[in-house]
Structure formats: structure tokens, C-alpha cells
Amino acid sequence: MWRILCGIGVLVAIVHPLAESRAVRRRGGAELQLDNYLSYDGIMQYLDQLALAHSSRMTLKDVGRTYENRALKMAMITNGDGRSGKRVIFLDAALHSREWMTPAAALLTIHKLVVEFEENSDLLADYDWHIMPLANPDGYVYSRNTERYWRNTRTPNGGNCFGTNLNRNFAVNWKEGFPQLRDPCDENYAGSSPFSEVEARTVRDIMHGLVESKRAVMYLSLHTANRSVFYPWVYNTAPVPNQEEHDEIGKFVADRIFQSTGTIIKTWQYALYDGTFGGTSMDYALLAGFPLSFVFEMSGTGRDNVEYKFFPPARDIRHLAEESWTGIKAFAAKAIEKYPPSRAISHNQMVELPKNAAPTIRGFNSMVGTVCIFFLYLTSVLN
Ligand SMILES: [Zn+2]
């Protein structure tokens, strides 16, 4: 009986993904739905289907598990020419879970690079893109289902308080700046220690991996809805060594967006805009050795000119995601122009590399297969 069940299990584990892969390829890939905000499952399903349909140019990597055991996934996008070790643009979205437009813009970016590859191939000639479209899935699910304005992770802090602000959890002047960073019940809580959150550790490990392999060029973190391009430092009012370069790229992005939709985007060094505090991923990326690091605070203003901030109505998702793509494309074009392969990069590492690597997660199907093959072997030996 067990052997029959396991035999069926192994067959399903092997045949099901193959059949699905053929079906998705026949359909020419997944449709990106931008008529509504996608659920966590909807985002994962879209990524799975896209990776199946375009396996020569997109690899979907399991990069970690959240506190509530959801998958953290990263799309690794190339032009399929087989050249390894290209420089990388690393983009993440939804570190703050209530900023619902950011995963939509990240998914549209993946769509533009993978499905509309021909139109955007210049952005992939000498560069790969690594994109985490949902960096805080636990918070995103909680924001969608329970408390819309939820911004943080879902780790318990004791005393019926939950969650750490991922963009305060990085090891740069951690917990310094203002009192709420130390309040476990506040939405600015910086965590119980630097990198207490697995989601922040995952982003950190990706950054260090790219720096170690000398591929890191630009870190771009998507937020809403301040209509700004921010560059480091946040923790310090001093200028970064390549401030002019950051400022030029930010103004180029703002200009491209203004030409396209009329939306006004301002460019700032963050500390000069809103004071200094510690723990941000943007500062950490620069300290880890990325030459360029930005936060893009996308617009949350609808076409009716109403400021919807974090939750623009569904009818505006596509328009705002397209506007953000105009910006993201400008960031990339300018970064690539500034850092062609001929320009050597001294990855100036001002923070230590972590000793612990992110755990590797195996797919469920392959796990079922392995366990059952072992079980079949065991029963045949015992018989
Ligand atoms: Zn934010």
C-alpha cells in the first residue's frame, strides 16, 4: 500500500511540474494582473509561471524563509547570452508592507525585462538584475488581511507587541536617532538587535554576496509615497564620497518621470531632508560596498490628482506602476552609463561580511520525491 502511494507521489512530483511547464510555455508565459493588488500567493504564482516560461532568461531563487515560514524569492534576470559574472542591479520592494504599489512596480519591472525583453535588451547587455518583489511577505499578508497600515514584520516583541521595522534593522548606527526606534510597540521599532529579522538578514546576505563576487553596482529599494529619490546617508549629514553622481542620477530619474507624466519627483540626501537616524538598508548597501544606493519613493497620487499615499485605487495601479518603471529604467540607464564594464570599481567595504550564509530551501516536490524514493528503497531492502 505504502509503495503504491509513494509510487504515485513520485510520479506526481516528477510529471506535474513538467506538465505545468509545457502548459505555461504553450500560453507564452503568465499574464501580469495590474487591475488589483495581488495577494502573496498571486505574486508567487506569477513568478513561478514566468520563470517556467522564460527559463533561459529568468531564474527564481528561494533566498530564505520569513518568521511565519513564507518563501522569500528573488528573480535573477539575464539576457540569456550565457556570460556569467556580469554586474548587477539589485532591487527590492515592500520592506514596508503597507506600501502596496511597490511589489506591483517590481513585478512590472520583471515583466518589462523578461517578457518585453526586446524593447529593454540594452538594460541587460552587460548587466544582470536581481529583484526581490516582496521583501516582507508576513507584513504584506497582515496588511492586506488584518491591519491595512501595518508596516513591519510579524515577529513577537513581548507584551502583545509585534513587528520590527525592516528599514531600521540594518547594522548602521542601529537604534540611534529618535526614541521610537527603541519602543517595541512602535512602527519604528528597530528590533531586538541589528539584523534580528530574517528578512533583513536575507537582503544583507544578497548584498554581501554581490560585493564579494565584485558584481554589485546599484541597490535600489522601492518605497511609497513621498515622490522622492533619496540617496545616503541617512545616519549622517556628511556627503557620500560620490554625492555628485548620486545627485545627477536622481535628477535624471526625476526629469524622465516629469517628461513622461508631469509628476514632480524631488532628489535629496535623506539626512538633509528629514534628519538623521540609523538602521536603513540604503546606508548599509553603500557601507557593504555598492557604489550606488537609492530609495525610490514612488508616487501615490491618482490620475484624479488625489493623494492616496499607500493605497491608490485599483484603477490607478497600472498607471503608477508604469510611471515607476519609467523611473526605474532611468536609474538603470544612468547607472550603466556611469559604470560601464571598462570602469573598474573599488568595492569599498566599510562593514564586515557576515559569517552565516542564508539557508538553502529545497522545493516541496523534490522533497516528496527524495523521501519517497528513500522509502521505496527501504521497503525493498526490508522485504
Ligand atoms: Zn517605506
TrEMBL record:
Coiled coil (UniProt feature): none
Keywords in alphabetical order: Carboxypeptidase, Hydrolase, Metal-binding, Metalloprotease, Protease, Signal, Zinc
Active site: 297
Keyword Protease tagged: yes
Gene Ontology molecular functions: metallocarboxypeptidase activity; zinc ion binding
One of the record's GO cellular component terms: extracellular space
InterPro entries: Peptidase_M14 (IPR000834)
Family matches, as Gene3D superfamilies: Zn peptidases
Domain Peptidase M14 residue range list: 36-335
Cofactor: Zn(2+)
Cleaved signal peptide residues: 1-21
Record GO biological process: proteolysis
UniProt-listed SUPFAM superfamilies: Zn-dependent exopeptidases
A Pfam family it matches: Peptidase_M14
UniProt keyword annotation of Hydrolase present: yes
Top-level taxon of origin: Eukaryota
Protein family according to the UniProt entry: Belongs to the peptidase M14 family.
The protein's name: Peptidase M14 domain-containing protein
Gene: Dere\GG14955
